[in-house]
Design brief:
Shape: globular
Strand order of the largest sheet: 2-1-8-7-3-4
Helix content: 25-40%
Protein name: Protein kinase domain-containing protein
Strand content: 15-25%
Order of helices and strands: HEEEEEEHEEEHHEEHHHHHHHHH
Structural class: alpha+beta
Number of helices: 13
Largest sheet: 6 strands, antiparallel
Membrane topology: Single-pass membrane protein
InterPro entries: Auxin_Ser/Thr_Kinase (IPR052422), Kinase-like_dom_sf (IPR011009), Prot_kinase_dom (IPR000719), Ser/Thr_kinase_AS (IPR008271)
Radius of gyration: 21 Å
Subcellular location: Membrane
Domain Protein kinase: 77-338
């Protein structure tokens, strides 16, 4: 298919979920993708599965259609399994055989709820497929890929993309905070549990949306999440509250400031390997802190002051004790004022968890 044909195709991203697996996804060309005859939908076969669209509601209303969905091959990450190559990497289809369980009942209950979640800064889930152990989610396509691509992988695409400027990082951080705060404020509250740059997607306008929220059934969370972003109480006790998302968000803020991975085992020192530990040590004085800032950033007095506020905010978000962390609405207040200095009236100056950041903003 020619490149101009691909650009004119309405595109969705399929997220394939299997028993106890990491989320892997592939690009789904809904209208014009040419398939082999064996891949075409055949109605009325014994392998028919139900696909419930986003128009359905939590109480079971809405529309559903029946499709045939063939089993995805067992080989992982081989050339024959490459579906396509897009801007931020190679897209595969894959399957894991794992003894851990991702309950079908949980999936059937949770996904119809998630299809109803709509927000400017949340990736919209449109359809889902169930067929045996196969779980396929269909969500909107975000053409610029993940935040990880622009924070850590930009060197591999030199000349195609460039590192994010500080103003872009502020806006992205604010977008993500708003999206997570919305999840926490829903009547049926959703805790993301796996918040990290690879689960933050960017559009052509470089505005951010949070993806893959609410997919964990509480059994495989620690194994399925990158340890560098896990709150201590979650990593040890698997205790789920909104404060674990706040902690993960604080780690993301540190990554935006430093351009570093949350856990880098290539570094020699144990404290250097763990971003949170290293970042706290670098905050001790101005000289060490300046060395911690991503060298790709153009530092002027205004930018440096803004980075300082975000750094203190990140420190509060990653407090060891959950009760010491702010909630996401307070975090959003601070970030919104940084991203848009003319909009400081929304800050809650009475909050006690962010005293230093508030004083600086005043």
């Amino acid at each position: 298919m020619e490149n101009n044909d691909i650009q004119n195709t309405t595109t969705s991203l399929l997220v394939v979920l299997f028993a106890g697996m990491l989320v892997f996804f592939y690009l789904y060309m809904r209208n014009k993708l040419k398939r082999s005859p064996s891949d075409h939908v055949k109605m009325g076969s014994e392998d028919d599965v139900k696909i419930t669209t986003a128009s359905s509601n939590v109480n079971g209303g809405g529309t559903s259609e029946t499709y045939s969905h063939g089993s995805i091959g067992p080989d992982n990450f081989r050339v024959k399994n490459i579906l396509c190559r897009i801007g931020f990497g190679t897209v595969y289809k894959g399957e894991f055989h794992d003894e851990t369980k991702f309950g079908v009942d949980y999936f059937k209950y949770k996904i119809p709820v998630l299809t109803q979640v709509r927000h400017t800064h949340l990736v919209a889930l449109s359809d889902y497929f169930l067929n045996g152990n196969e779980r396929i989610l269909v969500h909107e396509y975000m053409p610029q890929g993940t935040l990880s691509r622009f924070l850590f992988d930009w060197k591999e695409e030199a000349g195609i993309i460039k590192p994010l400027e500080w103003a872009q990082r502020l806006i992205i951080a604010s977008d993500v905070g708003i999206g997570v705060a919305h999840l926490h404020a829903l009547p049926q509250m959703i805790v993301h549990t796996d918040l990290k740059p690879s689960n933050i997607l960017l559009g052509d306008d470089m505005r951010a949306k949070v993806a893959y929220f609410g997919l964990d059934d509480g059994k495989n969370s620690v194994a399925a999440t990158k340890l560098g972003h896990l709150a201590p109480e979650y990593a040890v006790l698997e205790r789920v509250t909104t404060k674990i998302d706040v902690y993960s968000f604080g780690v993301i803020l540190m990554q935006m400031i430093t351009g570093r991975q949350a856990l880098d085992q290539n570094l020699p020192d144990d404290d250097q390997q763990h971003l949170v530990r290293w970042f706290r040590r670098m905050l001790i004085n101005k000289d060490t802190f300046r060395k911690a800032i991503d060298p790709t950033l153009d530092l002027n007095e205004e930018t440096y002051a803004s980075i300082g506020i975000m750094a203190e905010l990140a420190g509060h978000c990653t407090a060891v004790e959950p009760y010491q962390r702010p909630d996401m609405r307070h975090v959003v207040n601070v970030l919104s004022s940084l991203a848009n200095p003319d909009n400081v009236h929304g800050i809650d100056y009475g909050m006690t968890t962010l005293p230093k950041a508030v004083k600086r903003l005043q």
